[in-house]
Structures are given as C-alpha cells and as structure tokens.
Amino acid sequence: MSSFVSAQPFDFSFDLSSTALLVIDMQNDFCTAGGFGEKLGNDISPARAIIPTIQNVLQHCRRLGITVIHTREGHLPDLSDCPASKLQRSQRQGAGIGDLGPMGRILTRGELGHAIVDELQPISGEYVIDKPGKGAFYDTELQTLLTQLGIRSLIVTGVTTHVCVHTTVREANDRGYECLVLEDATAAFDIRDHEAAIRMIHQQGAIFGWVSTVEQLLSAKFE
Ligand code: TIU
Fold first, then answer.
1. Ligand 1 within 6 A of 183 CB?
2. 15 DSSP β-pair partners
3. Is the CB of 184 under 6 A from ligand 1?
4. What is the pLDDT of residues 115-162, one digit of tens each?
5. Domains in the chain, ordered, with CATH?
C-alpha cells in the first residue's frame, strides 16, 4: 500500500512493506545522566525529551506492521573495534570509552549505559544493530538486513540529529534508500545543531532526505 506524508521539501511517498523505522541510539549512554553524552559535556535533556515522542511513533509503526530497527553505538569490551583516534578524543573530553562510569563502562557493549532506555525496549520481531561508528552502515549487517527484507525507505528517529542520525541518513542516501527524518523525534544536545542538521537534510530539493513532523507521519494518506 502506498502512503504519502506531507514533508519538506515535498511529499514523501513510501510503501509500508518496503519501509523500516530506524530508532537510532536511544541508549542510556545518550539519554541518561552519567552516560557518554553527558560526560562529553552536554545537556542530555533534549535526548530524554523525545522518548515519549518516539514511543508514539513506535506504537504507530508497530500497528501498521512496519519493520522496526533499533541501533546502539558501542564497542566490544576489548575495544578492538574502537579506533585509537576516537578513544583518544573521548579521553581528552573526560568521557573515555571503556572507562568505568555510573552505568558501567562507557560506550561499551553489554553495559547498562549501552542498553536502550526502558521506555523504548525492542519487542519480539524487531531488530537491533550494534554499530561501532556514528553511521549505522559502517561495519554492521544493516545493509544485508535491509536487502533481505526488501526495504527501500527509512523513517528515521533518535539521537543525535547532527551526528549519528546525519551520518546514517547520508550513508543510506548514498546506498539508494529514501529517508524521512522526523524532526520532533530526533534531537541534538544543542538546538542550534539540531536545526542546522534538519535544514541540511531537505535543502536543495531533498539533497539527502525529507523532513516531517510526527503529526505529519500520523496523518499520512494511503492509496
Ligand atoms: N556526541 C554526539 O552528539 N553523538 C554521538 O556521539 N553519537 C550519536 O549521535 N549517537
């Protein structure tokens, strides 16, 4: 069934069966005090604020039967998948990857900080992609999964708009996927980064994606 969402810069059309909802990095490390995001020097409240909004989107997509894919940024316990450059900059910023924090080792797989927040826990039948980088395609099985599922369009939510959301949408666009970013279901720690990132996506005639609100998605027309 084809669907049309009113979006910037023009309507986004997609087919339910070939669309996936991406929920990017809604983990304690970015959304909870003491995690990687806060230790980097950020106010994490914008990330927490979108949790109920994403719950709403998840509920809607689950009802429609849309494929749901969650991602988590984090590294293997031995940090063998963490480039030295990333490790050094995290340490310099007081958020050393692998160091012990209030929720276990920072940005490390298996730790509480790495877990998706309680409110957005995946349910049976949903996918979780663990990624060592900012983009969800780099060094992950996401491309293979999307090919197997016949996915062509992505509805994108999560954090942070200018870092992991942007990198993932850019990677997806280059691979031929059409991406709709929900501006009120994504967040950056600083509103200026969020607003600039959102504008960059849809300018130049949807140069690498479309942007709509959750309300616009919920009002999508089906044909
Ligand atoms: N620091 C920051 O804005 N973001 C990240 O490090 N990762 C994600 O965006 N998930």
1. no
2. 2
3. no
4. 999 999 999 999 999 999 999 999 999 999 999 999 999 999 999 999
5. 2-218 (3.40.50.850)
